[in-house]
C-alpha cells in the first residue's frame, strides 16, 4: 500500500474547511452578513462566560487566518463590538499573528526542499533589518493579500521572530480601523455599509503610507525590494 506523504496530508486538512465554505456559498448563499444576525447572542455569551468566549474567539479567528478564509473584516468588526476598539484590536491582532504563524510554518515545511536546493539565492541572505522594513510595509497595505505575504515568507524561509514581529506591528493599523467601526456595530446591518467615504479615505491613506517609502530609490534599495523582484523573475 502506497504511503501518503506529509504534503498530501497537509493539503487534505487545508482543503476541508475551504470545501465547507464553498459548499455554503454555492448551496446556501452564505455570506459574512449572516454573522451580524447573532451579534446580540455573542454579546450575551461574552457577559456570562468572558474567559471562555475570549478563548473561543482567538481559536476561531486564528483558524480562519490559518486557512486563509475571507472573514477578517467581520471578525475585526466583532472584536471592536465585543471588546472595545483598543482591546479588540489587540485581541484580533494576536489572533492574526498566531494564525499567520501557523500558515507560515505550513508553508515553510511544504517548501523545505526548495530551501535546501536554492539556499544560495540572495533573498535568503538579505539583512534582517531590510526584511523587517519590507514585510512591515507589506503588512500595512490594505490591498496586498495577507495570505500571499505569509506563504511568501514561508517560501523565503524568513526567521520566526522577524515574521511574528512584522505581522503583529504591521497588522495593527488596519485592524484598528475596523475595530473602531465595529464599536458601532449595533447600527450596521450589512458589511457593505461600513465602506462610506471616510473609511475609503482612511484605507487609501493607509495604502499610500505603506507604498510611499517603497517608491523612493534609496528605501527600495535598503529594504531589498530589488532582491524580491529578482526572486519573482526567477520563478517566471
Question: Can you offer a commentary on this structure?
Answer:
The protein is built from 13 helices and no strands. The chain has 236 residues and is mostly helical. The protein has one domain (31-235). Helix 3 (39-48) packs across helix 4 (50-66), helix 6 crosses helix 9 (146-155) and helix 8 (128-140) runs parallel beside helix 10. Mean pLDDT is 78; it is low at 227-236.
Summarize the structure in short.
This protein is mainly alpha-helical and 236 residues long. It has one domain.
Present the secondary structure layout.
Elements: H1 6-27, H2 33-36, H3 39-48, H4 50-66, H5 72-83, H6 85-110, H7 112-117, H8 128-140, H9 146-155, H10 160-182, H11 197-215, H12 217-223, H13 225-235
